[in-house]
Amino acid sequence: MSESAENKIFILQDIPGKGKGLVATNKILKGTRILSEEPIIRVPDDAPDSPALRASISRQVDELTSDQRQAFLSMCNVYPGDTASQYLGIIRTNALPIDTGGAIFIDACRINHACDNNAQKAWNDSIGRHTIHALRDIDKGEEITITYVGVLNNRRTRQEVLRNKFKFTCLCKLCSLPAHLSAESDRRLDEILKLDRCIGREGLMGILSDPKRILGYVDRQVRLYNEQGPDDPGAQVFTERAADGWLVLDGDDSVRVINAKQLARNPSRHDTYENSAAWKTTADDIPQGLGSNEFEDWLWRREKASKADEQGLLRNQAAFPSFIQLPNETDVDESFFESKGGVKYQPRRHWCFLAEIMDYVTLVRLQMEVKDVVGKTIPLFFYTDSRGSEIAPSRLSKGYTIAVLYAQQHAFAFSEPGIRLEDPTLIKIFPLSLRNLLALSDRVLKFSKETNGMMICHGCEKQASSLKKCAKCSLFWYCNAACQKTGWVKKDHKGDCKLLRDGDLKGLFFLNWDSFQEFARFPLARLVLEAPHDDFRAEEAELPL
Length: 545
Prior knowledge:
- With about 550 residues, this protein is of the alpha+beta class.
- The chain folds into 4 domains: about 5-165, Beta-clip-like, CATH 2.170.270.10; about 180-300, no CATH class; about 325-435, CATH 2.40.50.140; about 435-545, no CATH class.
- The chain is about 35% helix and about 20% strand.
- It contains 15 helices and 23 strands.
- The strands form 8 sheets. Strands 17-15-14-13-16-18 form a 6-stranded mixed sheet, with no helix packed on it. It has a 3-stranded antiparallel sheet with strand order 3-9-8.
- Strand 11 (about 335-340) and strand 12 (about 345) form a beta hairpin.
- Helix 2 (about 50-60) crosses helix 4 (about 85-95) and helix 8 runs antiparallel to helix 9.
- It is elongated.
């Protein structure tokens, strides 16, 4: 695109509270190259302040045209000093990255920051220019923005980085969200970064040893972002999407786009191709006639999930997070903790980590290998006073589910990250697999709730406004003794009922997870007795069995 054509789609003008900025003069469509610009001043990467550096900068400034020099000197400088430091201060404030360091661009350096930026900056090695592309459609009169920070962190971290490095407080739409929406956004961003660290920590060996789990992490990241043979078709879809993504960010002449397109045409060129036969697909394997959601499920190898209205409480990821979603012991995660009086932090809500015991051994202390709700295997080490001996031998069994209240990620010096258990009152083992526990949670939701005065009989599954509850578990609804017998004999309510008479298990369903008044501890029987039973219609007659 020529300079004259570029200049028609934006204009440099005053932006309230920001100084100068670029504004679209016409609607700019997603993927449009807004500008392509050569640098007027270059500096080496991470070069220390030295006489040699200042001399190099002064020489480059002297070589500028009059208009270029005026444009450079009019740029913002948040590092005021003497005249000798002026050039360096402007560069430190405005430089954008290039292949060998940083550089000044007359137009690109005028683009202001927004955490929810509508454009993307990139250095294009193929053409030796800095490019700006529209990440989404930009309306006429809308300011063009890029991000000054490499990683989109939570609001508090973003604000701290911007204040320290660029000396301003960001007031973009993302940073100006109401408190509850900002907290939800921060929760998603924190989880994305945790997933990123987990993927990076395990590296190539993690991908090769358990590709489905790593793919699940990436899938989860994509979902969170969407809320904010040689020609393997499955690989082809992914690489075509990568090429399309880089096309929007960098333009069709960038090295990343060219490489991604070549890889899409021939995925077998990738170094890790065919490391696992489980991923091999043929052209005939691509399903036809699927809706967008169904195709995404096929592409990402997603397990078939229950319908949202059939998913029980224990599938709630806010209350029952996976390991990667847990807070880290070394950080204050504000989605889990809040400050009282600006000094002491306490949980802002309850949470419980659920995982299935895969193996266990007692050496110096009891240690377990457990698998969480997303299939990640982690270690649990008992640092209780009794080193784990307080766990009854009858509860130590592979395939049982352990529940840990207020669990946090812990970095062990001698093991991969896991959970350090110190308080036995925060630990409970239930005698069933995690899968069966989650399925039981789904049944509890379906057959114990009341919706608009209607309940569902566990025996015949008919809806009615007047049902009776099982006298033993006080949860499941039945029309009569015949339906209860059907549930007991044919639907295994006998087993469910026995499990649900455990006050700790029942307590998981009655605890108000969103409201923290005091620490919950096992046994949870007190919570069951004190909890309001509005959802379960406790006043209804019960069926003895």
